[in-house]
# Entry
Amino acid sequence: MDEDDHPLLKVPDFLKHHPELRKRGINLTLPLKPYAVYQTDPLVDTGFAVKILDPDTQEAAICEKLQANLKSPNHAIPAEVIRSSSRSPILLMPCLRELDSVPYHDASLSFLLSVFHQIAEGLEDLHRHRIAHLDMCPDNLVLAHERHAAADRRVEGKKIYIIDFHTSRQLEFPPGAQPAILLPYTQIDPPPGIKHFDPYSWDVYCLGHVFENRLQVYCYRRPEPRVVRWLIQWLTGTERGCKSACHCRPSAKRVRQMLTVIRGLVYTFGLLSSVPAIVRRLIPRPATD
# Structure
């Protein structure tokens, strides 16, 4: 079998000949996630990605709802749901970069905290709309570079976007009032023996694991910042298997607020630590004979 004909690598015929994609000159060539997500040639331009949506999920409705205002604090990826009477709907979106495209091991603590703040801000906005993502993980976060912003006016350079709402739920109650639900399949494992979770609290629990993942990259050959370790422990909490609204960990809003405070303190301490060097430069040296 020719490599290009392998089922894992082949773009479905209905996508190749999709009238809306052809009208826009979008030619999909590679799978990003076999049988689900495909992209245009990354060597040609910044590119597009197309996801085949499951009509039995809430993903299409949630994505459409989140397109109303794409400015921050909304961190949902700019996208368009294209529906068809005979086929599953598809999601057309810019093909952005994975989080690993950032050299965290060379970054400052302020930069790491700014990444955390963006993700927490995006999660808080989802929860404000009573949407639980339910599969927050590093693979479902992407980063826009400046070239992506230049190619698509909806995209903001250096902004982190949340993707993949396949298992997401539009909920009846807001954070603090939502009872536990049976968790769907997720990339992050729940605590042993626990199958039901307050969906908002589950998102925050997963957020702690996302931060842990980024921290491990950041701490390559340098010690962990204690404040970040404390933050992660605060997010993961001590799960008690709450059947009603969970209070084992903070809300996404409180996480974002705490990160705002921590970032301010880190910035202030950085300024104060530079004062002695500034003073030394300003004080004239005594003349020598």
Remarks:
- The two ends are 86 Å apart (CA to CA).
- The chain has a mean pLDDT of 92.
- The longest strand covers residues 28-33.
- The chain is about 35% helix and 15% strand.
